[in-house]
Every structure is written in C-alpha cells, then in structure tokens.
Amino acid sequence: MGITKYNNILIFMVVLFFIPLFMLNSDLWDGVIIAHAFESENRDIYWNWFSESGWFLTPLFYDVFYYIGRDYFPFSLHILFLFSHLFSIRQVRVLSREHFNFSDSSSLICCCFFALNPIWNIYFSSVFLMHSITLALALFCLNKMLQFKLSSFVLCSLLSFVTFQQASMPPLIFSIIIFMLFMKFEPRKSKYAAAYFVCAIGYFTLTSYLFPAHGLYAGYNNISLTNLFKSHLYSSYLDYIVKVYPAVLLLLGIVFVKSKDQRKCVFAFMMLIVMNAIPFILVGKTTAESHLDIVGGWNQRQSITITVIVAIIFGYLWQVSDSFSKRVWNQVAYVSIICSLVFVTYRYYLSTEVKVKSIALKTEMVELFKAYKSKLEACGIELEVSLPPEYRALSTYELNYIAWKSFNQRHYTYASDNGPGGIFKEPIYRDKYIQSITKPDCLNKVTYTSETYRLAMHEILLNDQYSYSLSIR
After folding, report:
1. pTM of the model
2. Disulfide check for 387: which of 14, 31, 169, 391 has CB 3.0–4.6 Å away?
3. Per-residue pLDDT at 393
C-alpha cells in the first residue's frame, strides 16, 4: 500500500511539471518551424526538413496531428508528450522489476530518477515528438524482447525498427540486452540476440543508404571512427553525469570496493553508460549540463538514453545498499541517493522555470512588435536583446517566427548577437525558416528589455503584468 501511495505521488508530480507546458501552449527552438508549418498549413516544410535529415518516418508522426489535431496544436502534442512520458515511466518500472529484479522500493527510486529528470524540459519544443514516441516504444519493445519468447521477440524486434528514427535507440536496446547476457549467459537467448543484432544493423544500414541525409543536411550525423579517440567528447558526458548526478559514480565506487560480489555488475553498469554515449561520440556530438539552465540550450538531448541508464543505476544502488557490512555505509548510501533525487528534481524545476521564462519573453516580443507595428513593419529589424546571457539566445528563425506572428507576414529580422543572415533562393527553405523574399532598403535598430526573467515561474504563470519595453532608433 505504501509503494502504491508513492507511485501515485510520483504521477502527480510528473503531471504537475507538465502544467506550465499546457498553460503557455507555445513552442521553443526548432519547434517554431513545426508551429509555422501547422499554422501556415504547409506540410511541405516538415516533410522537406525531415526527409533531408534522413528521418524518413518522422514526417508521418506529424501528419497524424496535422490532419487530426491541427486546430489544437501544440496542445495536442503536449498531451502526447505527457502520455508518452507516463508510458515510458511505466516501462522503466517493468524493466527494473521484471528484468533487473529490483524490489518495489528500488524500482520506485529508479522511476523517480527517470520521471523527474531535468532533461525533460526538451518537451517544451514540438520538435521532440519523435524522441518522446521512440523512447516509449523502444522501452516497450525491449521489455517484451527480454522475455525471449519467440513470437513476442520477433514481433517486437520488427516494431523496434521504428524507433531507429532516433539513432540513439538501437544502442539503448543493444546495450541492455548485452548487459543481461553478460550477467547471465544463456545460449538460447544469445542466439535470439545475435539474430536481432544482425537484422537491426542490416535495417539501419539499408535505410541509411536508401534515405541519406542530403540538401542542407548533407553530411549530417556522419560517423567518424576518429571521434572515438577524442577525449573532449568523452569528458563532456562525464562532466554532465558528475554535475547532474554528483553521487552516482562515487556510490558505484563504494559498492565496487566494499562488495566483491558486485564488481562484475558495477563494471557492466559503467559499460552501459559508455555504450549509450558512443553513438553521439561517433558523430562528434557533445552534451552540456549548462544547457539545462539556458533558454537556447538543447545539447542536453544527447543524454536522453543515459538518463535511462543512470535511473537504473540509482535503483541498483538502493537495492545493494543493504549488502554493506557496516551500517554506516548503508546509511550513507541511502542519504546520498535521496539527496541526489532531491537535487535532480530541483534541477528539473529550474530547467522548467527557465523555459517558461523564455516563452514569456518571446510572448512579450510579439506584443511589443504588434504595439509598434506602424513603426516597424516598413523596414527590417535588428534586435538587441538586453537580457542576461542565459536568456539572450534567439535563433534567426525564432525571431522570424515572432515577427510573422506580429505582422501576419514574413519580415526581415535578425538578432544583433547573430548578425545579418542571407536569404535562401529556394522557396521551400524560405518557407521553412520563415524568410522574406528580399532584404528591405531600411533597417530599424530595436532594443528589447524586460524584467520578466527576474520573476519566479508561478508569478509568470499566474500574472500577465510584466515590466518590459522596446526602444527603436
């Protein structure tokens, strides 16, 4: 009964963190490209974008919402984000209980670290639709495959190929299957796994050949084996883990030293972390803990699968704490894990708050542009954002979207921090990046200031009276 109560509290907290998403009902980062495609009723925008990126199935995900829920965008996507997240939490619970053999309390700890992780602030952007669906589906398929029953293994193996739209999903599935076989090798299961690996690699190779990245994305995510020897790529993931989960590596070290029986398991968990960082390292991508706390930071997305692994590790640490011979080490472990969970949850709050502030600031810009429409629409706009650095990041297409929402037409705009950019000749690229056809003959230099970033999240959500201004020269 106690565990059920805590599970319900966890679900309540997850829903609570999603409330700002529903209240603001807006978009961030590359999500404005999706928003513009929906609002301008131009599916070609995201079809061109994802087709050139090599994500040949991803446009179909958006088509479902385009045809069924376009009038409720992005609210309809936010509902799916919440459902996918809750479903993923459920699958993490199944994974920890049925396959890692965690107790109820250890499984709860595992689910808490996964559910209340600061990385989920990415759901403020509709561009992460594919990530939310593929993660939930990958965890579901993995749980079924780990039963090693022929019919469900074959069916879910085929279904898991859909998740390969997010290139980090195959390593997540592969690594956990390998972990299980490493901990307890069984010839029959190893044959199933080997057959799956061969088919999965073949599918990934074939689809990469048939649907290569091209156009603006030619060379996107190219694999280079030389990246495996670049230490700064590994250190970015180590830095992320140390700063977001400061106790996890220390606790693993304590278990390794204090319990000889667990050394094989500790080594396997360390390999799990490495195997889930390797896909990004191969294409030269880093992650950044600092991106959790700035409006323009989304390099954190490289740590989605590591989030699953670290959550499992915390569940494991809770499980093995009783094995310490001295009670003091047992208590140190429990306190460290609880403190880590509080810290992670607090980081989730802070990362959510900064994204809420970002949306509020951009909403203010739309209102100000509308208020000064007669002065601004005749010329282009060079915008200086007079805010602290962590709130100043504004891509050109985000600013173009703000101008489009303000003037009901495309407008030549750029942020002074970025400098002026060119205009694409191809209509589809101008549509994608919301660009005007030509540069204007004149330019307004505009400075935007606001005190909204000083407010707490609840003050922004519950009060629409802010202090902000626009000066034109």
Report:
1. 0.92
2. 391
3. 78
